[in-house]
Amino acid sequence: MTADPGDTPHVRQLLGAYVLDALEADESGTVARHLQQCGACAAAYVEIMDAASLLALINVDDLLE
Ligand SMILES: [Zn+2]
Q1: pLDDT tens-digit map of 3-44
Q2: Is pTM, for the whole model, over 0.90?
Q3: By Cβ atoms counted within 10 A, which residue in 2, 17, 24, 31 is the most buried?
Q4: What is the 4 CA–ligand 1 centroid distance (Å)?
């Protein structure tokens, strides 16, 4: 268990759905606000965005092979 910096819960569990635009509007807003305040979650968000774009490329290539 890790302590939160302040009283804002981390949003890493929501980042995958956030990247895929699969969150409810209020959840998406919560994630967006948290990313502006939390460098750790913002870094995780960038990693997930990179992974999502790589997966998109891999899926296209696999389908064409
Ligand atoms: Zn965080």
Answers
A1: 445 567 899 999 999 998 999 999 999 999 999 999 999 999
A2: no
A3: 31
A4: 8
